[in-house]
Amino acid sequence: MGVGRGKGEGGGRTGRGGRGISGGRSSSSRESRALVDRVKASAASGSWEEALAHVAEVRSSGLKLDGRVHTAAIRAALDGGKARPVLATIAAMRADGFVPNISLYNKAISLCGRQGAWEDAVFLLRDAQRVSSPGQRRGVDVVTFSAAVAACRDGGEWRQALALMEEMQAAGIKPDQIAYGTAVSACAMAGQWEKAVALLADMRRSKLRPDVVAYSSAIKACGAEGRWEEALGLLKEMQENGVRPNLITYTGAMEACGRAGRWNNALGLLAEVRDRGLRPDTFTLNAVMDALGRSGETEKALALLDTMRPPRPRARPSPGTPPGFLPSSDPPSSYDSRRVHSAATLPTDGVEANDSIDGLKNGGGRLSGGGGWGGGGPRADVFTWSAAMTACIEGDQWQKVAGMLEEMRGDGVPPNAINYNLAIRALGKGGDWERATGLLEEMKEAGVATDERAFNAAIEACGRGGCWERAVRLVDDMHTEGLVPDSLTYRRVTEQIVAQPR
Question: Where is the composition biased (Gly residues) (predicted)?
Answer without folding.
Answer: 11-23, 361-373
